[in-house]
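Model it.
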Amino acid sequence: MVFQPLAGVKVLDLTRLLPGPFCSWLLQAMGAEVLKVEDLKGGDYLRFAPPKTDSGASALFVALNRGRKSVALDLKNAAGKEAFLALVEDADVVLEGFRPGVMDSFGLGPTTLLETFPRLVVASISGFGQDGPWALRPGHDLNYLAITGALSLGARVDGVPTVPPVQIADVGGGSLPAALGVVAALYGREKHGKGAYLDLSMAEGALSFVGPLLAATHAGAKQMKPGGEMLTGGFASYRVYLCSDGKMLSFGPLEPHFFATFCAVVGEEVAATDHQRLAAIFATKARDEWVELLPRACTAEVLELHEVLEHPQHQARGMFDEDEHGLLIKPPVGAFVRGSPPKHGEHTEEVLKTAGVDVEALRAAGGIR
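Modeled.
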């Protein structure tokens, strides 16, 4: 049975790039209808990111924006603002990712929207939150991780932490808490009849990941060594090892019984702290041989991206599909999001007419093209 608890929920998504669209992709996977509201200048910057699919669209844009409609409006224009408010009348959620204060400058700030539409859920995703001395400071994932202490914990090359390979703060600190917050606010609305405003900071979302370590530090724990703690590369029994074929194996039997299983397979009582001996052992066989030999010892192959699609676990779980627009990836909740990616402003007239907007008058006023 397909999990679609948000069927009937309408989301107006004003965000661009990754954090906001990833959030609305999750809401869409759970059944919500997502309407992408873009500016008149070209819309979401992700539209122009390489590589392109056979249809000419950005593969990154397609991955996050399938099956939604695009409306191009000038929210700085009085008529464009009124047209947007007509869309809000029939919406449940407004998701925005502008710098703090921009929605207020349009006359569409959360206080204004909730006064007019008290059942609305408004969610703002920003780097550092809507207030505080850093509220207007520009930043990216790397910067958000830096001020949480998370970046300092990893292994260092020439004394400098390595850059994380995926956007931890953008998605884990922004998109996921936003999606959870929206779902919780919608549930709360059913209970007490009122909407809510969610001020979501990507830095604060990432800060929560470091919470237990901060608590330990505050309680007097020793200074943590970069790349030298149990889960950051300091333990020989929690590391990545090179195999005889040049491929790599992740090895993580921290618990004694899992490490004992490894020792039984290799026929040797290895010390769990002996990194050199473990490296020498893993260098004797190919990566996939070790995967077959050690199914009970917390091991997994380190896959290159081109190998991920063929992994038997992903295949068995039906994690991928494909259509004329390229690869589909199954969301962690809900169902595949299918459909064409919208062209910029493709559905402007259709959607606005349905909302009762006089499209010709709006165009004459400069609110749309």
